[in-house]
Protein backbone atom coordinates (compact mmCIF):
# COMPACT_ATOMS: atom_id res chain seq x y z
CA UNK A 1 0.00 0.00 0.00
CA UNK A 2 2.84 2.42 0.85
CA UNK A 3 5.43 1.06 -1.59
CA UNK A 4 5.39 4.24 -3.70
CA UNK A 5 5.22 6.90 -0.98
CA UNK A 6 8.84 7.90 -1.65
CA UNK A 7 7.85 8.53 -5.26
CA UNK A 8 5.98 11.75 -4.46
CA UNK A 9 8.19 13.58 -1.99
CA UNK A 10 11.57 15.11 -2.70
CA UNK A 11 12.69 14.63 0.91
CA UNK A 12 12.12 10.84 1.03
CA UNK A 13 14.70 8.39 -0.26
CA UNK A 14 13.64 5.28 -2.15
CA UNK A 15 14.91 1.87 -0.95
CA UNK A 16 17.41 1.96 -3.82
CA UNK A 17 18.91 5.22 -2.56
CA UNK A 18 17.28 7.44 -5.17
CA UNK A 19 15.25 10.65 -4.99
CA UNK A 20 12.66 10.19 -7.69
CA UNK A 21 11.48 13.80 -7.85
CA UNK A 22 14.96 14.89 -8.93
CA UNK A 23 15.00 12.18 -11.59
CA UNK A 24 11.61 13.33 -12.83
CA UNK A 25 12.98 16.87 -13.12
CA UNK A 26 15.88 15.54 -15.16
CA UNK A 27 13.36 13.80 -17.45
CA UNK A 28 11.74 17.19 -18.05
CA UNK A 29 15.14 18.45 -19.19
CA UNK A 30 15.52 15.50 -21.59
CA UNK A 31 12.20 16.38 -23.21
CA UNK A 32 13.14 20.01 -23.82
CA UNK A 33 14.47 21.27 -27.14
CA UNK A 34 18.15 20.55 -27.69
CA UNK A 35 21.06 22.92 -27.09
CA UNK A 36 24.79 22.54 -27.80
CA UNK A 37 27.68 24.46 -26.22
CA UNK A 38 31.36 24.19 -27.17
CA UNK A 39 34.54 26.24 -26.90
CA UNK A 40 37.99 26.76 -28.38
CA UNK A 41 40.92 28.66 -26.88
CA UNK A 42 39.25 32.07 -27.07
CA UNK A 43 35.51 31.69 -27.59
CA UNK A 44 32.40 29.85 -26.43
CA UNK A 45 29.47 29.14 -28.74
CA UNK A 46 25.89 28.09 -27.94
CA UNK A 47 23.61 26.73 -30.66
CA UNK A 48 20.05 25.89 -29.61
CA UNK A 49 16.75 24.80 -31.12
CA UNK A 50 13.75 27.03 -30.61
CA UNK A 51 10.24 25.61 -30.46
CA UNK A 52 6.89 27.22 -31.19
CA UNK A 53 4.00 25.90 -29.04
CA UNK A 54 1.69 26.25 -32.06
CA UNK A 55 1.67 27.59 -35.59
CA UNK A 56 0.04 30.77 -34.30
CA UNK A 57 2.81 31.67 -31.84
CA UNK A 58 6.39 32.82 -32.18
CA UNK A 59 9.42 30.72 -31.28
CA UNK A 60 10.40 30.60 -27.60
CA UNK A 61 13.68 32.23 -26.68
CA UNK A 62 16.29 29.72 -25.49
CA UNK A 63 19.34 31.99 -25.03
CA UNK A 64 19.47 34.34 -22.04
CA UNK A 65 22.19 37.00 -21.50
CA UNK A 66 23.24 37.17 -17.84
CA UNK A 67 26.08 39.70 -17.90
CA UNK A 68 28.35 41.12 -20.56
CA UNK A 69 30.64 38.11 -20.18
CA UNK A 70 28.11 35.37 -19.32
CA UNK A 71 25.05 33.88 -21.00
CA UNK A 72 23.20 30.60 -21.07
CA UNK A 73 20.80 28.29 -22.91
CA UNK A 74 17.91 26.63 -21.08
CA UNK A 75 16.05 23.40 -21.76
CA UNK A 76 13.12 22.03 -19.79
CA UNK A 77 10.69 24.32 -17.95
CA UNK A 78 11.38 27.78 -19.36
CA UNK A 79 9.67 29.57 -16.45
CA UNK A 80 12.13 27.97 -14.02
CA UNK A 81 14.98 28.98 -16.30
CA UNK A 82 13.96 32.63 -16.42
CA UNK A 83 13.54 32.70 -12.63
CA UNK A 84 17.08 31.40 -12.11
CA UNK A 85 18.39 33.79 -14.79
CA UNK A 86 16.99 36.73 -12.81
CA UNK A 87 18.79 35.51 -9.69
CA UNK A 88 22.05 35.13 -11.65
CA UNK A 89 21.76 38.66 -13.03
CA UNK A 90 21.28 39.98 -9.51
CA UNK A 91 24.43 38.19 -8.32
CA UNK A 92 26.44 39.62 -11.20
CA UNK A 93 25.10 43.12 -10.59
CA UNK A 94 25.85 42.92 -6.84
CA UNK A 95 29.43 41.88 -7.56
CA UNK A 96 29.96 44.75 -9.99
CA UNK A 97 28.48 47.21 -7.47
CA UNK A 98 30.63 45.93 -4.59
CA UNK A 99 33.92 45.21 -6.37
CA UNK A 100 33.68 47.08 -9.71
CA UNK A 101 34.60 43.95 -11.63
CA UNK A 102 32.73 41.12 -13.36
CA UNK A 103 31.85 38.05 -11.34
CA UNK A 104 34.04 35.03 -12.24
CA UNK A 105 32.05 32.30 -13.96
CA UNK A 106 33.00 29.61 -11.44
CA UNK A 107 31.79 31.72 -8.49
CA UNK A 108 28.47 32.37 -10.20
CA UNK A 109 28.04 28.61 -10.69
CA UNK A 110 28.68 28.00 -6.99
CA UNK A 111 26.05 30.56 -5.99
CA UNK A 112 23.33 29.36 -8.37
CA UNK A 113 23.92 25.67 -7.63
CA UNK A 114 23.42 26.35 -3.91
CA UNK A 115 20.13 28.07 -4.69
CA UNK A 116 19.02 25.11 -6.81
CA UNK A 117 19.83 22.66 -4.03
CA UNK A 118 17.49 24.26 -1.47
CA UNK A 119 14.23 22.84 -2.94
CA UNK A 120 15.75 19.35 -2.98
CA UNK A 121 15.99 19.34 0.83
CA UNK A 122 12.62 20.74 1.87
CA UNK A 123 9.30 18.96 2.20
CA UNK A 124 6.53 20.15 -0.11
CA UNK A 125 8.81 21.74 -2.71
CA UNK A 126 9.97 20.45 -6.07
CA UNK A 127 13.36 20.74 -7.77
CA UNK A 128 13.87 23.22 -10.57
CA UNK A 129 12.93 21.43 -13.80
CA UNK A 130 15.47 23.10 -16.03
CA UNK A 131 18.93 22.29 -17.35
CA UNK A 132 21.28 25.16 -18.18
CA UNK A 133 24.28 25.35 -20.49
CA UNK A 134 26.22 28.32 -19.10
CA UNK A 135 29.03 29.89 -21.11
CA UNK A 136 31.31 32.74 -20.15
CA UNK A 137 34.73 34.32 -20.51
CA UNK A 138 36.89 35.65 -17.67
CA UNK A 139 40.56 35.86 -16.69
CA UNK A 140 40.78 32.07 -16.73
CA UNK A 141 39.60 31.90 -20.35
CA UNK A 142 36.39 30.52 -21.90
CA UNK A 143 34.11 28.26 -19.84
CA UNK A 144 31.28 25.85 -20.59
CA UNK A 145 29.25 24.53 -17.66
CA UNK A 146 26.25 22.26 -17.50
CA UNK A 147 23.98 22.79 -14.47
CA UNK A 148 21.37 20.05 -13.99
CA UNK A 149 18.27 19.87 -11.71
CA UNK A 150 20.24 17.95 -9.08
CA UNK A 151 22.20 21.24 -8.61
CA UNK A 152 25.43 19.62 -9.80
CA UNK A 153 27.56 21.85 -12.04
CA UNK A 154 29.87 20.17 -14.57
CA UNK A 155 32.80 21.94 -16.17
CA UNK A 156 32.81 20.74 -19.81
CA UNK A 157 34.85 21.13 -22.97
CA UNK A 158 31.56 20.82 -24.85
CA UNK A 159 28.12 19.46 -24.09
CA UNK A 160 24.65 18.86 -25.52
CA UNK A 161 21.40 18.58 -23.61
CA UNK A 162 17.72 18.16 -24.44
CA UNK A 163 15.60 15.91 -26.62
CA UNK A 164 17.57 13.55 -28.94
CA UNK A 165 20.82 15.16 -27.78
CA UNK A 166 22.69 11.84 -27.77
CA UNK A 167 23.36 12.28 -31.50
CA UNK A 168 24.89 15.68 -30.83
CA UNK A 169 27.05 14.32 -27.99
CA UNK A 170 28.28 11.55 -30.29
CA UNK A 171 29.32 14.14 -32.87
CA UNK A 172 31.06 16.25 -30.23
CA UNK A 173 32.98 13.26 -28.88
CA UNK A 174 34.22 12.33 -32.36
CA UNK A 175 35.45 15.85 -33.15
CA UNK A 176 36.63 16.89 -29.69
CA UNK A 177 40.30 17.13 -30.70
CA UNK A 178 39.51 19.66 -33.44
CA UNK A 179 37.74 22.27 -31.35
CA UNK A 180 40.64 23.83 -29.44
CA UNK A 181 42.57 24.89 -32.57
CA UNK A 182 39.70 25.79 -34.90
CA UNK A 183 38.58 29.32 -35.75
CA UNK A 184 35.38 30.91 -34.45
CA UNK A 185 33.55 30.29 -37.74
CA UNK A 186 34.64 26.65 -37.79
CA UNK A 187 33.55 26.26 -34.16
CA UNK A 188 30.09 27.60 -35.00
CA UNK A 189 29.78 25.23 -37.97
CA UNK A 190 30.70 22.31 -35.71
CA UNK A 191 27.97 23.39 -33.30
CA UNK A 192 25.41 23.56 -36.10
CA UNK A 193 26.42 20.13 -37.40
CA UNK A 194 26.05 18.65 -33.93
CA UNK A 195 22.63 20.25 -33.50
CA UNK A 196 21.41 18.94 -36.88
CA UNK A 197 21.74 15.42 -35.51
CA UNK A 198 19.00 16.22 -32.99
CA UNK A 199 16.48 16.88 -35.77
CA UNK A 200 14.26 14.50 -37.73
CA UNK A 201 15.41 14.03 -41.32
CA UNK A 202 12.68 16.19 -42.89
CA UNK A 203 13.11 19.14 -40.50
CA UNK A 204 15.74 21.66 -41.54
CA UNK A 205 17.55 24.20 -39.41
CA UNK A 206 16.68 27.79 -40.25
CA UNK A 207 17.23 31.21 -38.80
CA UNK A 208 13.80 30.98 -37.21
CA UNK A 209 14.22 27.72 -35.29
CA UNK A 210 17.95 28.00 -34.55
CA UNK A 211 19.48 30.38 -32.02
CA UNK A 212 23.18 31.26 -31.87
CA UNK A 213 25.17 33.09 -29.19
CA UNK A 214 28.88 33.88 -28.92
CA UNK A 215 31.07 35.07 -26.04
CA UNK A 216 34.83 35.24 -25.79
CA UNK A 217 38.00 37.26 -25.83
CA UNK A 218 37.19 40.93 -26.53
CA UNK A 219 33.61 39.94 -27.36
CA UNK A 220 30.64 40.33 -25.04
CA UNK A 221 27.90 37.73 -24.89
CA UNK A 222 25.94 38.30 -28.10
CA UNK A 223 22.81 36.60 -29.41
CA UNK A 224 23.10 36.66 -33.21
CA UNK A 225 20.13 37.80 -35.33
CA UNK A 226 18.58 35.47 -37.93
CA UNK A 227 20.43 36.96 -40.90
CA UNK A 228 23.80 36.23 -39.24
CA UNK A 229 22.82 32.62 -38.46
CA UNK A 230 21.84 31.66 -42.02
CA UNK A 231 25.40 31.64 -43.52
CA UNK A 232 26.57 29.15 -40.89
CA UNK A 233 23.60 26.89 -41.60
CA UNK A 234 24.48 26.95 -45.30
CA UNK A 235 28.13 26.12 -44.58
CA UNK A 236 27.13 23.18 -42.38
CA UNK A 237 24.76 21.80 -45.04
CA UNK A 238 27.37 22.12 -47.79
CA UNK A 239 30.05 20.45 -45.69
CA UNK A 240 27.82 17.50 -44.79
CA UNK A 241 26.56 16.91 -48.34
CA UNK A 242 29.91 17.19 -50.12
CA UNK A 243 31.91 15.10 -47.67
CA UNK A 244 31.51 11.56 -46.53
CA UNK A 245 29.86 11.55 -43.12
CA UNK A 246 32.51 10.82 -40.49
CA UNK A 247 30.05 8.62 -38.64
CA UNK A 248 29.53 6.55 -41.80
CA UNK A 249 33.26 6.22 -42.46
CA UNK A 250 33.66 4.44 -39.11
CA UNK A 251 30.29 2.66 -39.10
CA UNK A 252 29.51 -1.05 -39.16
CA UNK A 253 27.52 -0.38 -42.34
CA UNK A 254 30.74 0.45 -44.18
CA UNK A 255 32.86 -2.19 -42.46
CA UNK A 256 30.42 -5.12 -42.58
CA UNK A 257 27.72 -4.40 -45.15
CA UNK A 258 29.33 -2.60 -48.11
CA UNK A 259 29.65 -5.43 -50.64
CA UNK A 260 30.18 -5.91 -54.36
CA UNK A 261 27.55 -7.41 -56.66
CA UNK A 262 29.63 -10.59 -56.99
CA UNK A 263 29.84 -10.97 -53.21
CA UNK A 264 26.08 -10.54 -52.89
CA UNK A 265 25.38 -13.15 -55.56
CA UNK A 266 27.86 -15.56 -54.02
CA UNK A 267 26.30 -15.28 -50.55
CA UNK A 268 22.78 -15.73 -51.88
CA UNK A 269 23.73 -18.72 -54.00
CA UNK A 270 25.58 -20.39 -51.13
CA UNK A 271 22.64 -19.81 -48.79
CA UNK A 272 20.15 -21.15 -51.34
CA UNK A 273 22.19 -24.26 -52.16
CA UNK A 274 22.77 -25.20 -48.52
CA UNK A 275 19.08 -24.63 -47.64
CA UNK A 276 17.81 -26.72 -50.57
CA UNK A 277 20.18 -29.54 -49.67
CA UNK A 278 19.15 -29.46 -46.01
CA UNK A 279 15.42 -29.35 -46.76
CA UNK A 280 15.72 -32.19 -49.29
CA UNK A 281 17.47 -34.40 -46.71
CA UNK A 282 14.87 -33.42 -44.12
CA UNK A 283 12.03 -34.34 -46.50
CA UNK A 284 13.56 -37.73 -47.37
CA UNK A 285 14.07 -38.53 -43.68
CA UNK A 286 10.43 -37.67 -42.97
CA UNK A 287 9.17 -39.83 -45.85
CA UNK A 288 11.35 -42.73 -44.74
CA UNK A 289 10.06 -42.43 -41.16
CA UNK A 290 6.45 -42.43 -42.35
CA UNK A 291 7.06 -45.39 -44.67
CA UNK A 292 5.25 -43.95 -47.67
CA UNK A 293 6.14 -42.49 -51.02
CA UNK A 294 5.68 -38.74 -51.58
CA UNK A 295 6.81 -36.45 -54.37
CA UNK A 296 9.65 -34.17 -53.31
CA UNK A 297 8.52 -30.51 -53.46
CA UNK A 298 10.06 -28.02 -55.86
CA UNK A 299 12.48 -25.67 -54.15
CA UNK A 300 13.05 -22.01 -54.92
CA UNK A 301 16.18 -20.77 -56.69
CA UNK A 302 18.23 -17.85 -55.37
CA UNK A 303 16.73 -15.59 -58.05
CA UNK A 304 13.19 -16.61 -57.08
CA UNK A 305 13.95 -15.96 -53.42
CA UNK A 306 15.11 -12.46 -54.32
CA UNK A 307 11.82 -11.79 -56.12
CA UNK A 308 9.91 -12.77 -52.99
CA UNK A 309 12.06 -10.44 -50.89
CA UNK A 310 11.41 -7.57 -53.33
CA UNK A 311 7.70 -8.35 -53.19
CA UNK A 312 7.69 -8.10 -49.41
CA UNK A 313 9.62 -4.82 -49.43
CA UNK A 314 6.91 -3.42 -51.70
CA UNK A 315 4.22 -4.76 -49.35
CA UNK A 316 6.06 -3.38 -46.31
CA UNK A 317 6.05 0.13 -47.78
CA UNK A 318 2.28 -0.03 -48.20
CA UNK A 319 1.88 -1.21 -44.60
CA UNK A 320 4.29 1.45 -43.33
CA UNK A 321 2.23 4.21 -44.93
CA UNK A 322 -0.76 3.22 -42.81
CA UNK A 323 0.94 4.68 -39.74
CA UNK A 324 0.58 8.17 -41.18
CA UNK A 325 -3.21 7.84 -41.10
CA UNK A 326 -4.77 11.12 -39.86
CA UNK A 327 -7.48 9.10 -38.11
CA UNK A 328 -5.05 7.97 -35.42
CA UNK A 329 -6.23 8.80 -31.89
CA UNK A 330 -5.06 12.14 -30.54
CA UNK A 331 -2.97 10.59 -27.77
CA UNK A 332 -0.91 8.72 -30.37
CA UNK A 333 0.26 11.83 -32.21
CA UNK A 334 3.27 12.36 -29.94
CA UNK A 335 4.42 8.75 -29.97
CA UNK A 336 3.78 7.90 -33.63
CA UNK A 337 5.81 10.63 -35.31
CA UNK A 338 6.89 8.84 -38.46
CA UNK A 339 9.88 10.11 -40.29
CA UNK A 340 11.01 8.85 -43.60
CA UNK A 341 14.13 6.99 -42.56
CA UNK A 342 12.13 4.45 -40.52
CA UNK A 343 11.28 2.65 -43.75
CA UNK A 344 14.92 2.82 -44.83
CA UNK A 345 15.92 1.07 -41.62
CA UNK A 346 13.27 -1.63 -42.06
CA UNK A 347 13.99 -2.33 -45.74
CA UNK A 348 17.72 -2.58 -45.04
CA UNK A 349 17.11 -4.97 -42.13
CA UNK A 350 15.02 -7.26 -44.34
CA UNK A 351 17.60 -7.30 -47.15
CA UNK A 352 20.45 -7.96 -44.73
CA UNK A 353 18.55 -10.78 -43.06
CA UNK A 354 17.85 -12.60 -46.32
CA UNK A 355 21.41 -12.18 -47.49
CA UNK A 356 22.41 -15.04 -45.18
CA UNK A 357 19.03 -16.70 -44.56
CA UNK A 358 16.47 -18.29 -46.85
CA UNK A 359 12.79 -17.47 -47.30
CA UNK A 360 12.26 -21.23 -47.30
CA UNK A 361 13.30 -21.25 -43.63
CA UNK A 362 11.84 -18.00 -42.34
CA UNK A 363 8.59 -16.52 -43.63
CA UNK A 364 9.29 -13.14 -45.30
CA UNK A 365 5.85 -11.85 -44.31
CA UNK A 366 6.57 -12.40 -40.63
CA UNK A 367 10.16 -11.15 -40.80
CA UNK A 368 8.97 -8.09 -42.73
CA UNK A 369 6.70 -7.10 -39.85
CA UNK A 370 9.43 -7.77 -37.29
CA UNK A 371 11.89 -5.65 -39.29
CA UNK A 372 9.48 -2.73 -39.41
CA UNK A 373 8.70 -2.95 -35.70
CA UNK A 374 12.41 -3.08 -34.84
CA UNK A 375 13.06 -0.13 -37.18
CA UNK A 376 10.70 2.08 -35.19
CA UNK A 377 12.76 1.39 -32.07
CA UNK A 378 16.18 1.72 -33.71
CA UNK A 379 15.19 5.00 -35.37
CA UNK A 380 14.27 6.38 -31.94
CA UNK A 381 10.52 6.51 -32.58
CA UNK A 382 9.30 3.50 -30.61
CA UNK A 383 5.65 2.50 -30.53
CA UNK A 384 4.07 -0.23 -28.46
CA UNK A 385 3.63 -3.68 -29.96
CA UNK A 386 -0.12 -3.52 -29.31
CA UNK A 387 -0.41 -0.30 -31.29
CA UNK A 388 1.75 -1.73 -34.05
CA UNK A 389 -0.35 -4.87 -34.56
CA UNK A 390 -3.55 -2.79 -34.45
CA UNK A 391 -2.68 -1.79 -38.02
CA UNK A 392 -2.63 -5.44 -39.15
CA UNK A 393 -6.06 -6.33 -40.59
CA UNK A 394 -6.11 -10.02 -39.56
CA UNK A 395 -4.51 -12.53 -37.19
CA UNK A 396 -3.29 -9.85 -34.80
CA UNK A 397 -2.73 -12.20 -31.87
CA UNK A 398 -0.72 -14.53 -34.07
CA UNK A 399 1.57 -11.76 -35.33
CA UNK A 400 1.82 -10.23 -31.86
CA UNK A 401 3.19 -13.49 -30.51
CA UNK A 402 5.55 -13.98 -33.45
CA UNK A 403 7.03 -10.47 -33.36
CA UNK A 404 7.62 -10.62 -29.61
CA UNK A 405 9.49 -13.95 -30.04
CA UNK A 406 11.47 -13.06 -33.16
CA UNK A 407 12.70 -9.54 -32.36
CA UNK A 408 15.85 -10.64 -30.52
CA UNK A 409 16.38 -13.39 -33.09
CA UNK A 410 16.39 -10.78 -35.88
CA UNK A 411 18.81 -8.57 -33.96
CA UNK A 412 21.16 -11.51 -33.55
CA UNK A 413 21.03 -12.36 -37.26
CA UNK A 414 21.80 -8.71 -38.06
CA UNK A 415 24.88 -8.92 -35.80
CA UNK A 416 23.27 -6.16 -33.72
CA UNK A 417 24.22 -3.63 -36.42
CA UNK A 418 20.99 -1.69 -36.00
CA UNK A 419 21.96 1.86 -36.90
CA UNK A 420 21.53 2.51 -40.61
CA UNK A 421 22.84 5.43 -42.66
CA UNK A 422 20.06 5.86 -45.23
CA UNK A 423 20.43 8.26 -48.19
CA UNK A 424 17.64 10.66 -47.14
CA UNK A 425 19.82 13.19 -45.34
CA UNK A 426 22.51 13.38 -48.08
CA UNK A 427 19.70 13.86 -50.61
CA UNK A 428 18.38 16.89 -48.71
CA UNK A 429 21.87 18.39 -48.67
CA UNK A 430 22.30 17.92 -52.41
CA UNK A 431 18.86 19.40 -53.11
CA UNK A 432 19.65 22.49 -51.03
CA UNK A 433 22.81 23.02 -53.08
CA UNK A 434 20.99 22.31 -56.34
CA UNK A 435 18.40 24.99 -55.62
CA UNK A 436 21.13 27.44 -54.57
CA UNK A 437 22.88 26.68 -57.88
CA UNK A 438 19.63 27.23 -59.80
CA UNK A 439 19.03 30.56 -58.04
CA UNK A 440 22.52 31.66 -59.03
CA UNK A 441 21.58 31.01 -62.66
CA UNK A 442 18.06 32.44 -62.32
CA UNK A 443 18.10 35.29 -59.74
CA UNK A 444 14.40 35.94 -60.40
CA UNK A 445 13.42 32.81 -58.44
CA UNK A 446 11.66 33.95 -55.26
CA UNK A 447 12.04 32.41 -51.81
CA UNK A 448 8.52 30.98 -52.05
CA UNK A 449 9.27 29.35 -55.42
CA UNK A 450 12.51 27.91 -54.06
CA UNK A 451 10.70 26.49 -51.02
CA UNK A 452 7.98 24.92 -53.16
CA UNK A 453 10.59 23.42 -55.49
CA UNK A 454 12.55 22.05 -52.53
CA UNK A 455 9.47 20.41 -51.01
CA UNK A 456 8.35 18.83 -54.28
CA UNK A 457 11.83 17.52 -55.16
CA UNK A 458 12.35 16.16 -51.67
CA UNK A 459 9.01 14.34 -51.70
CA UNK A 460 9.66 12.80 -55.10
CA UNK A 461 13.25 12.00 -54.17
CA UNK A 462 12.10 10.13 -51.07
CA UNK A 463 9.69 8.11 -53.22
CA UNK A 464 12.54 7.19 -55.56
CA UNK A 465 14.74 6.13 -52.64
CA UNK A 466 11.98 3.97 -51.16
CA UNK A 467 11.36 2.32 -54.53
CA UNK A 468 15.06 1.70 -55.11
CA UNK A 469 15.33 -0.19 -51.83
CA UNK A 470 14.22 -3.20 -53.88
CA UNK A 471 17.66 -3.03 -55.52
CA UNK A 472 21.03 -3.71 -53.88
CA UNK A 473 22.15 -0.07 -53.79
CA UNK A 474 22.07 -0.09 -49.98
CA UNK A 475 24.79 -2.79 -50.17
CA UNK A 476 26.90 -1.67 -53.13
CA UNK A 477 27.07 2.12 -52.72
CA UNK A 478 27.58 4.60 -49.86
CA UNK A 479 24.55 6.75 -48.93
CA UNK A 480 26.03 9.84 -50.59
CA UNK A 481 26.35 8.09 -53.96
CA UNK A 482 22.87 6.62 -53.58
CA UNK A 483 21.53 10.15 -52.97
CA UNK A 484 23.50 11.65 -55.86
CA UNK A 485 22.07 9.00 -58.20
CA UNK A 486 18.59 10.08 -57.08
CA UNK A 487 19.47 13.70 -57.92
CA UNK A 488 20.51 12.56 -61.40
CA UNK A 489 17.23 10.67 -61.77
CA UNK A 490 15.32 13.84 -60.83
CA UNK A 491 17.37 15.68 -63.43
CA UNK A 492 16.33 13.20 -66.12
CA UNK A 493 12.69 13.68 -65.15
CA UNK A 494 13.00 17.47 -65.03
CA UNK A 495 15.69 18.63 -67.51
CA UNK A 496 15.19 22.27 -66.49
CA UNK A 497 16.95 21.45 -63.20
CA UNK A 498 20.25 21.07 -65.09
CA UNK A 499 21.28 18.37 -62.62
CA UNK A 500 24.19 17.17 -64.75
CA UNK A 501 25.70 20.67 -64.87
CA UNK A 502 25.18 20.93 -61.11
CA UNK A 503 27.09 17.70 -60.51
CA UNK A 504 29.92 18.79 -62.81
CA UNK A 505 30.27 22.34 -61.53
CA UNK A 506 29.39 22.02 -57.84
CA UNK A 507 29.72 18.43 -56.62
CA UNK A 508 32.73 17.44 -58.71
CA UNK A 509 34.06 20.98 -58.61
CA UNK A 510 34.74 20.52 -54.89
CA UNK A 511 36.69 17.27 -55.30
CA UNK A 512 40.27 17.77 -54.17
CA UNK A 513 43.40 15.65 -53.94
CA UNK A 514 44.46 14.61 -50.44
CA UNK A 515 48.00 13.92 -49.30
CA UNK A 516 48.87 10.31 -50.08
CA UNK A 517 46.08 9.80 -52.63
CA UNK A 518 47.00 7.46 -55.46
CA UNK A 519 44.33 8.97 -57.73
CA UNK A 520 44.38 12.41 -59.28
CA UNK A 521 41.39 14.75 -59.11
CA UNK A 522 40.42 13.89 -62.69
CA UNK A 523 40.59 10.16 -61.93
CA UNK A 524 38.32 10.65 -58.92
CA UNK A 525 35.79 12.55 -61.01
CA UNK A 526 35.88 9.92 -63.74
CA UNK A 527 35.39 7.12 -61.22
CA UNK A 528 32.37 8.86 -59.68
CA UNK A 529 30.78 9.38 -63.10
CA UNK A 530 31.34 5.71 -63.91
CA UNK A 531 29.54 4.72 -60.71
CA UNK A 532 26.61 7.03 -61.43
CA UNK A 533 26.32 5.67 -64.97
CA UNK A 534 26.47 2.10 -63.65
CA UNK A 535 23.65 2.88 -61.22
CA UNK A 536 21.58 4.40 -64.03
CA UNK A 537 22.12 1.32 -66.21
CA UNK A 538 21.20 -1.03 -63.37
CA UNK A 539 18.04 0.93 -62.55
CA UNK A 540 16.92 0.97 -66.19
CA UNK A 541 17.28 -2.82 -66.41
CA UNK A 542 15.87 -3.68 -62.97
CA UNK A 543 12.46 -5.34 -62.65
CA UNK A 544 10.73 -3.40 -59.88
CA UNK A 545 7.71 -4.89 -58.13
CA UNK A 546 4.83 -2.44 -58.55
CA UNK A 547 1.93 -4.85 -57.98
CA UNK A 548 1.51 -7.66 -55.46
CA UNK A 549 0.12 -9.88 -58.20
CA UNK A 550 3.69 -10.19 -59.49
CA UNK A 551 5.40 -13.23 -57.98
CA UNK A 552 2.18 -14.66 -56.57
CA UNK A 553 2.93 -18.08 -58.06
CA UNK A 554 6.26 -18.13 -56.18
CA UNK A 555 4.36 -17.66 -52.91
CA UNK A 556 2.48 -20.87 -53.72
CA UNK A 557 5.77 -22.69 -54.34
CA UNK A 558 7.11 -21.32 -51.05
CA UNK A 559 4.07 -22.63 -49.19
CA UNK A 560 4.89 -26.14 -50.45
CA UNK A 561 8.63 -26.16 -49.75
CA UNK A 562 8.80 -24.13 -46.54
CA UNK A 563 10.71 -25.63 -43.62
CA UNK A 564 8.02 -26.93 -41.22
CA UNK A 565 10.35 -26.56 -38.24
CA UNK A 566 10.04 -22.75 -38.55
CA UNK A 567 6.40 -22.61 -39.68
CA UNK A 568 4.34 -21.58 -36.65
CA UNK A 569 1.24 -23.24 -38.16
CA UNK A 570 2.88 -26.64 -38.78
CA UNK A 571 2.48 -29.72 -36.58
CA UNK A 572 6.26 -30.06 -36.29
CA UNK A 573 6.63 -26.52 -34.93
CA UNK A 574 3.80 -26.99 -32.44
CA UNK A 575 5.36 -30.24 -31.22
CA UNK A 576 8.73 -28.54 -30.69
CA UNK A 577 7.01 -25.72 -28.79
CA UNK A 578 5.19 -28.24 -26.61
CA UNK A 579 8.43 -30.03 -25.76
CA UNK A 580 10.11 -26.73 -24.92
CA UNK A 581 7.28 -25.76 -22.59
CA UNK A 582 7.47 -29.13 -20.84
CA UNK A 583 11.21 -28.71 -20.28
CA UNK A 584 10.60 -25.27 -18.78
CA UNK A 585 7.67 -26.36 -16.61
CA UNK A 586 9.86 -26.38 -13.48
CA UNK A 587 9.76 -22.55 -13.54
CA UNK A 588 6.03 -22.50 -12.69
TrEMBL record:
Keywords: Cyclin, Cytoplasm, Membrane, Nucleus, Proteasome, Transmembrane, Transmembrane helix. InterPro entries: Cyclin-like_sf, Cyclin_C_2, Ntn_hydrolases_N, Proteasome_alpha, Proteasome_alpha-type, Proteasome_alpha1, Proteasome_asu_N, Proteasome_sua/b. It holds the Pfam family Cyclin_C_2. GO terms for cellular component: cytoplasm; nucleus; proteasome core complex, alpha-subunit complex. It comes from the Eukaryota. It is found in: Cytoplasm; Nucleus. Residues 6-28 form the Proteasome alpha-type subunits domain. The chain crosses the membrane at residues 332-350. GO terms for biological process: ubiquitin-dependent protein catabolic process. Belongs to the peptidase T1A family. This is Proteasome subunit alpha type-1. It comes from Hymenolepis diminuta.
